[in-house]
Structure formats: structure tokens, C-alpha cells
Amino acid sequence: MKRIISLIIFAALQLGCLAQVNPKLESLYAYLKANGLVKGYTLSNQHEEGLRKVYSFEFMLYEEEPSPFLEDYFKTPLEAKADSVKRAEQRKLREAIKQIRRTLSELTEDATESYSYEYHQGGHDTITTAIVLKKFSEGPVPTFLKNPFITHMDGFKIPEMVYFNYRGYKYPGSYSVSPLGQGRLNVNAIVDTALYATQDFDVKTLHKTILPLLKDKTIKRHTIHCQHDSTFDVFPANDVTFSNATLRCQKTKRARGDNNLTVYKFTSEDKAKAVLHQIMECVRQHIAEHPREAYTICSDEYFPPRIFETMFKGGTYEYEYNLERPRTSMTIDTMMDEEGFYILINVYEDDEVLPDEWKTLKEMINGKMVYYKDKL
Asked: How far apart are CA 344 and CA 247, in angstroms?
């Protein structure tokens, strides 16, 4: 009975979150979700300000003419059917951009502060809009609002904010079918000021709960151990692009990492979805019973194509970094490709490392690689 009540409370919490965000932003989210342009939103209590809800939409806009679209850098024309699909996607995208801009225009009436910048000349387009919808508890709106080239709003203690940016890079006189530009919408809101983390996530307990769900011997798997210390820099100097040893890195100030990953492979989509759902039910159950433990969770369960997406992360709660304190975290990632569906569970200390050779790599210790004989 206690578990049922906890799940009801957690579900009610999520519904409550939806009710507290500006209705125009919720309407925009519903529109993007219905058109398959966003998969879900994240909820995270790893902020002093409270439980934060975020959803993002990134897009690439292409020329409508001439036909056909080109599928690679070698300018290979898409086949007629694929070209038709691409054009339908672009029409949907253009309508979505119009809807976003209409919504942003309406939201300026509700804004505490807003900033908008546009530049259009010869195919070089720049559009930036930043809107703060709720006031700060103290202090002014940061001056970054006045920077038309800002590309994110993570890390700023803003109760409710919308950010939209589009950068065009079409060169006059170019007649090849190429991207016109790319853009991003980010909606970021504190939905409950009381629900912030005060404890580290109990990684050990959740991991122990999940493992029995994955004992099925028909599920292919292999483990990967990645470890490094301060003598080996797995990260590039500029911290922007990753080295060829890693697909994703989360760097901490301790300059060390110990990652224990397990990759589970499914050839049946139905089975993959069923197992993922069971895992995420365990996660939601744990969060419902321990809402003060630090976490970030995705609202929906899915397998994105060709790139890992984090469905859940549990970690430490502290808001000021302490080099002496152990930092143990856990992520649950998903992905699909032409060979199958994958669930990756990583239990790690300090730096997170997800190697780009995850199908063949067995071990990476300070850059020294050991591989499996067979690919997963």
C-alpha cells in the first residue's frame, strides 16, 4: 500500500508541475510533442531554487528549392521517396517555427524582462529572443540577456525563462541544396521551490533493485571499465569537442574517473521497451519514496536513433563543489541503431566517460585500450 501511495504522490507531483508552468509554454510543448518534434521534458531537483523542468527543441532548416535534397557532403541526391519525406518534415518544421515565434510574441506581454534581436541580410539571419517570465527572489536579470549570441541558459538562477536562437549561414550565390541555418528553443522553469535535493542519491540501492530485471540470459550484454587519473587527460584542452576516445564526458574538478558501464542489447523492440519501462518504474518508485535525493529524470521513455539519451541520472546534491567529498553517480541511457536497441547503465565516480567504441571496448585505463573479440 505504501508503494502505491508513493507512486500516486509522484504522479500528482508531475501533474502539479505541468499546472504551474505558464499555460502558453505548456500549449507550445503540447504542439511540439503532438508533431513529434520533442520527445519529453526533464525534471531535476539538483538546484537550490527547487524542482526544475526543462524542455528543448533543436532544428536544422534547409532550402526548399532546388530539388532534390542532398544527403551527404558529396552532394548525393536523395531518392524521390526520401526527398518527399524530407520536404514534409521541413514543412512541419517551418510551421513549428512560426508557432514558436507567435508564442514568444504573446509571452512578451507576460514578461518580467525580455530581449529580442534580429538581423537579416543576404541570407545571413540571426534571431534571438530571451524572456524572463517570473521575477528573481533577489538581484537583477543577468546581463547575458543582452547578448544575442548566447546559446544556452543553464546555470542561471532564473525561476522561469524561455530562450530562442536561430543562426543562418547561407552564403549568397550558393546554388547547392544546403542547410540555411540551425536553431534551438529552450524552456526552463522552477515548478516547485520546496522540492530541492538535500541528500545524495542512493545509487547502490537503486542499482540493486534494477539488476534482477536484467538477468534474462537472452539479453546480450557486455561490461566496460573506464578509469583515469590526473596523469591522463581524457578531455580536450578546450572542453568543447571530445577526444576520439570518448563519446560523452562530464568533467569534475577532481580530474579522475572510475566508470563501470554495462550495455544491454535487444533485437526485439517490444522487449526493449518492456524492460526499459520496468527499469524506469523502479526509478520512479525510488524517487517517490526518496524525493530529497538528487536526481534528473526524463518524462518519457524512448530509444533515440544513433545517439545515447539520458533517461535518468542520480548523483550528489551539493551546490558548492567539495573536492574531498566522494561523488558517486548513476546514469541510465538509451539508444537504437540498425542493429538493435540498447540500454546502458553506468555507475561511476567523479568524471563520467562514455566511450565511442562502446560496442567493442572492454577496458580503458588511462588511455590504454583492451577490446572484446566480438562486437556487441
From this structure: 13
